[in-house]
């Protein structure tokens, strides 16, 4: 091998240049060989645990709990360590302490002497769990996860055995001193957080953090600070990204949905969006008009006055009408979208109160549109233009909103290939014959992976580009991603928003899923997609969210003989009657793949006070005979390349091409 390296060094000057730069980091043979040994050792470690979560839709309490218990990983570790040595109630108390250390410590009500014993017992148990979850990582990686305040103590306790001769008294004395110095609480919090962090090596969010539930911003705060995370954009995320970028049509969609679910608080109080111009406009133009279709969903369960609910409904209707106008303008700008049937406002007979949908005339439940000019239905009034501009400025200048959106741009993408798995929120749109459905981008028909790459570029362009024409084009593409028939994030025949508001006939509400969804049990279809992303269909998997799995009707999340896994099981309470459960998550560790189904989560308060964990059922999808090692992962591939480079550097030192600097 060294001879081959030498030949390459002799014939390629750029190799010498690169190795010369590498030599600055490893200036001697000793330095280079030490790093080779270190990297080879890392390659033989078990791969870290990956955690997959999808379609949280603002349900921050459920999300936070699943994140803390790592979909049962923490409880599994506790059972492995303590087995029958602890009662089930003791193991659950320990798990709850790990999940919510500060809150649990505040609830303990025992005497001072009992408290000392409790602290010592809890610390011993927590240290055992910390040792187990840290065992698959290098000391260096574990050390980086330590809180600075307790770094030295944690390293001593986790890396030393309390049973070791001459170390037992030392080990015990550390724990006793922590308690005596009144640092037990702080140390328990620190080690519990460490356990949570080391339980999961990588978090994958398969889209749709936003809309419906009340706490998408809280979830985003968590994700910003998470140690290792990636995000595959969902259709409900892309509208918030586009709204922050300044797309008027997507701003209207965001406000409409938050009003529909009576959740305007997230915009006004948490993101600082000024909705006062909209409230004034709606009061002036829509007071006394028909608001029935726009009454907030679930409003009967909230303690709000009739006046507050009416104001939300007024704003809801006003913004929806503006949305329809702006979307009509956008569709007109882009005939290549082939979405003329979604313009709608120009096929309403405002005198008869009817509308033409798919060539058939329907009676509108209301034809109460005070700001629409039937002769120019897509034209914004001067008041609407002014109000939209004010909203646009507010969205673009919201610091917290844009901090969250920049996280989605920097950590997110349309899809991700990671450790031989393909992660996509929605799908790869396909025709009924199994071919990829094309989407027209810049005058060119694009399909599959190529289409997704180009759409992702346009989405980034819509947020970052300084040129107003290119920026608008990117934002229009983001709107298409939200509701376009060939959008990988949507992929339905239409978004029947207008029909659901104004037509009683249920057949008009139907949104036909792309053929991908009716054929996703077809092994050949999924293999074709995996191959398009340069993956081996015999060993790789595809992971989706987006369409809830109707478990209550007997549907399985495991498709195409296990090649496709669908993990949207109903985190959002709005979907739980339809699915019958409260979400799926996926765990991929060194032993294989495990699908976890979750029952509804009552509340954080119940979890802390009564130790009520989410009831979860784990199904082993793939149990590997040989444990998967770091060498089998994407990181392992990079490390192997580093080893190869270092071997070349050692050869260069020994052959005299580069001089050692000892």
Automatic annotation (TrEMBL):
<comment type="pathway">
    <text>Carbohydrate biosynthesis; gluconeogenesis.</text>
</comment>
<dbReference type="InterPro" id="IPR029052">
    <property type="entry name" value="Metallo-depent_PP-like"/>
</dbReference>
<dbReference type="Pfam" id="PF06874">
    <property type="entry name" value="FBPase_2"/>
</dbReference>
<keyword id="KW-0378">Hydrolase</keyword>
<dbReference type="GO" id="GO:0042132">
    <property type="term" value="F:fructose 1,6-bisphosphate 1-phosphatase activity"/>
</dbReference>
<keyword id="KW-0464">Manganese</keyword>
<dbReference type="InterPro" id="IPR009164">
    <property type="entry name" value="FBPtase_class3"/>
</dbReference>
<comment type="similarity">
    <text>Belongs to the FBPase class 3 family.</text>
</comment>
<protein>
    <recommendedName>
        <fullName>Fructose-1,6-bisphosphatase class 3</fullName>
        <ecNumber>3.1.3.11</ecNumber>
    </recommendedName>
</protein>
<keyword id="KW-0119">Carbohydrate metabolism</keyword>
